[in-house]
Sialin-like (Galleria mellonella), 487 residues
Amino acid sequence: MFKIRVRALIGVMIFLGYFLIYIVRYNLSVHIIDMAQITKREDNGIYNNTNIQRNSGTVSGNALHLINWNDMKVAKLFSAYHIGYCICFPIFHNIGDRLGPTWVVGIAGMTSGVLSCLTPASAYYSFWALFFVRIIKGFCAGAMQPSMVQVLRHWVPPIERNHFMWAYCGITTGTFSTFLICAAVHYYSQWPVGFYISGVLQVTWSALWLFVVTDRPDKHPYISNEEFTYLTNTIGTIFTIKLMNSQAPWKSILKSVPFWALCILNFGYAWMIISLCIYGPFYYSKIVKYSIYSASALTALPFFCRLVLGTIVIQTFHWYKHNLKLKRIKHIRKYFIIVSHVIPGLLVFVTWLFPVVPGPILLTISVTLTAAGMDLTLDLCYELTPTYVNSVNTVIKIVGNISGIILSFCVGQVTQKYKNTPVTWKQIWCFHALVLFISGFVFLIWGETHIQSWNFKKNRPRRIYTRTAPKPSVMSNIMEVEEEDSM
């Protein structure tokens, strides 16, 4: 008889959670083409506000007025999500377990869904209202992602973790699906409908999450005795992990060159990926002159290819790592970096020397090759510090999302000053590729793939000495008390 494993259902819910997070994260990239007038310019650089019409493919007769935002305002909207994410992620990485990760995810997802439904109204009300909504949605995502990892940690035994990697595929699946779903919305309806759909889906998922998921197996009302016994015997305790993360030797970590090389590696990787997610639909539709549907499909294509190629690479490497009969290749991780960073960066960067504007073929090949770096950062964190991997990975993720803030402002400033022309965007894409190339080159020189000495250090708990009232038969009235974190 077929038995439904509760941990499998929780894996499915986490997959859908990541899927919806990334739809909410990047749907503005497509909808902004139809909701804002940002590209029509005269020769003197002034926006042409006459004869403003909606893009082809929307329903005629019910056209909404375009919102007149300049390039810097659009850049601020793109950066707002990453600002909220960077603020919230480190907070909930540590306190999510204390508050209850299930409720953190449910409430944050519900809030994000409601705000998605309110996005069209906030856009028409004022720019800063939409900017604030985007920050809060990024804040909600920053609470959800580490909390979902904490839930998965309680439900998946170490021996099964490689089998649950598909749950994280919701990230890439949600990324490429976003552009296809938004293109369909533009074909059949109007841009506000896209925000309503994503909002309703996230609210529905959040309600279902609270019904299906619990923090730990012992709290689940429908888990079988067989599965509960199995999880109890195989997972054990995670107290040691929490304790070690709280005692991370940050002074030694921040002085570590390999740590900063890994931060730079992930910064360049995130820079290239986020740049295409944010500006891909705009670039293909307004600069290369594809329809909005073709532009969305072309933006989605490399992320679908990344999912396929990345899955093959991860499974092949996992097979190689556990097959002791094969000869070990020294510094094999750095060969992955050559494929994921150095080669893609060179492919686009060299177009700077030729009268060629990077097109769909070149950008698709380059971004697809970055699949060799999927899951690479987390593995390198394990290589450097198995003890403090969660703490180090948190910092690296924050650094990666900071790239979304910086590149948005950089692109907005450049396009505002030099206009949205093919030549300008050629310089932009070559610069993106240069960042990717340099980040990989830096790690090849200064990066390490072995355990660092600070992995075996830990900060000693702070000790507070207090004076107590004297007691009979006690020779000294001074006692040493260790202050514990009770939060």
